[in-house]
Amino acid sequence: MKRLSEERTRILFEKLSKYIGSNIKLLIERPDGLYCFREQKDRVYYVSEKILKLSSNIPPEKLISVGTCFGKFTKSNKFRLHITALNYLAPYAQSKIWLKPSTEQQFLYGHHITKSGLGRISENIEKYQGVVIYNMQDLPLGFGAAAKSTAECKLADPLASVCFHQADIGEYIRSEEDLL
Amino acid sequence: MDVIGEILQRTAEDAEKYKPITVEKHLDLEYDLGTLLAVDNNDFDLAKLRRNQNDYFLNLTRENTQLLINKIWELPTERVEEAIVTKLPPQKTVLPRMKPVPKPKPLTKWQQFAKDKGIQKKKKTKLSWDEQLQKWVPLYGFKRAKTEKEKNWLLEVPGNSDPMEDQFAKKVEAKSERVAKNELQRLRNIAKARKISVPRVGVINPDASSAKELQAAVTVAKASTASLGKFQEKLPKEKEARGISELVPGGTRKRKLPPVPATVEKKENLAIVDSILNKRPKLDIESAIAKQISNSHVSSNHNENSGSKSYGKGQKANKSKGAKKPKGAKGQRKGKGGGRKRR
């Protein structure tokens, strides 16, 4: 477990800011103790200081995961969020999309969201901004990138993609082995 | 009668000279006739062994050999040109090999790749029918060069190339280039198999190099000054190549950050967050237009910095435009929809 270099921290925060904007500060400054980002084998974990200290007793090559895995750095040094980060993205999300019950399953199988499946959309979403996807019961299902801005969505035809799929909770089953 | 007695005596003497072919053994021997092997599991007779070792062993060996030969005689025999021969059964004993098992030849880079990808070699026939020449043409080797010459007596000048360029010379050069490349790869494979480190060649052909290779070359070239590139200027969005730390002294090598107290780390992280959030937003024309459209669509003041105060004004302005029909609950609503009425 090592600290993220400044460059990588910057890349991580830039990615997170697409989804939760200035709420990143709330992830770093928490009232319930100190939390930090740690890196192992290119994967980034969000861990409380307390657990991190406990984990230092375990040799790093034996350690599989500590805290919450947010995602991983690719070989080209870009950051890719994993579905496991949803627990922290959903409460702070700034732009949201709600799905109709009929498209829920489609999304959970890894498909993009079409205009016809759109139940509700928050205002002022910019194009390619990160959005968190909910069902109509406000259960977070995953996240993606807005294919169209809110204004464009209103004019789009029903089959046009509104949001590109990035991760969904179906991955817990579909790609169980590579989630770690 | 004397004669008969003599003969009988002689045969008895002869029989005494030859030992009997039947041998008594406590345990039967184990035979492997394929290798002409017999294994005697009986214990030594210690008394006889101590008395006369050599004779005892000689006798024992004779007896065992006799048994083995008896066993061979049990096999079906046939007569080939005055000689009695038999066919031995396949051997049961596995003999260890004298020399170690040869190591498999190291795969070439292509072979390794093909193996990983599951690419199988396709057998191509050496001769193939050529429609143009109307005859069978070899794929390689004898008479191949001749057919090539016959076939390419005329070459087309590609539309986008220089018309004065010699297409024949170009073709020859391309061929020699391919041959040279193959030779280089062959040598590289040998070096890899023998684990010899080969010096890097750098960028050979800038026209054909990938962006990654060029970036690596730039990064290395920049660090190749007396001050290890410390005073080299940077282009605005220049990035350093990754994964070449062994070529660039100092600087770019990855170092593990020293541990700091969590509070300090938090402060550093917050500073980074601030710098990201306070970045002057790029003028994104598309998003600006989208915003403009949404503003005009709603036709009310959406500016965030003018809050509830201007809300009334907007309404007034709407009213002053005059005589707008009520939309019958189909109009766009501002805000979250529903909730407390704010008057």
UniProtKB/TrEMBL annotation, chain A:
Family recorded in the similarity comment: Belongs to the NIP7 family.
Subunit structure as annotated in this protein's UniProt entry: Interacts with pre-ribosome complex.
Keywords, ordered alphabetically: Nucleus, Ribosome biogenesis, RNA-binding
Coiled coil: none
Cellular compartments annotated: Nucleus, Nucleolus
GO biological process: ribosome assembly
A GO cellular-component term linked to this record: nucleolus
Organism: Acanthoscelides obtectus
Pfam families cross-referenced by the UniProt entry: pre-PUA_NIP7, UPF0113
UniProt domain PUA: residue ranges: 95-174
InterPro entries: NIP7_N, Nip7_N_euk, PUA, PUA-like_sf, PUA_sf, Ribosomal_synth_fac_NIP7, UPF0113_PUA
Cited function: Required for proper 34S pre-rRNA processing and 60S ribosome subunit assembly.
Protein name: 60S ribosome subunit biogenesis protein NIP7 homolog
Molecular functions per Gene Ontology: RNA binding
UniProtKB/TrEMBL annotation, chain B:
UniProt subcellular location: Nucleus
Biased composition (Basic residues): 316-343
Compositional bias segments (type: Low complexity): 294-315
Skewed-composition ranges (Basic and acidic residues): 233-243
Keyword Nucleotidyltransferase: no
Principal place of residence: nucleus
Keywords: Nucleus, Ribosome biogenesis
InterPro entries tied to this protein: Ribosom_reg
Record's GO cellular component terms: nucleolus; preribosome, large subunit precursor
UniProt-annotated stretches for the region Disordered: 233-259, 292-343
GO BP, sorted A to Z: endonucleolytic cleavage in ITS1 to separate SSU-rRNA from 5.8S rRNA and LSU-rRNA from tricistronic rRNA transcript (SSU-rRNA, 5.8S rRNA, LSU-rRNA); ribosomal large subunit biogenesis
UniProt cross-references to Pfam families, sorted A to Z: RRS1
PANTHER family: RIBOSOME BIOGENESIS REGULATORY PROTEIN, RIBOSOME BIOGENESIS REGULATORY PROTEIN HOMOLOG
Function of the protein: Involved in ribosomal large subunit assembly.
Family: Belongs to the RRS1 family.
Protein name: Ribosome biogenesis regulatory protein
Organism listed in the record: Acanthoscelides obtectus
Lineage of the organism: Eukaryota, Metazoa, Ecdysozoa, Arthropoda, Hexapoda
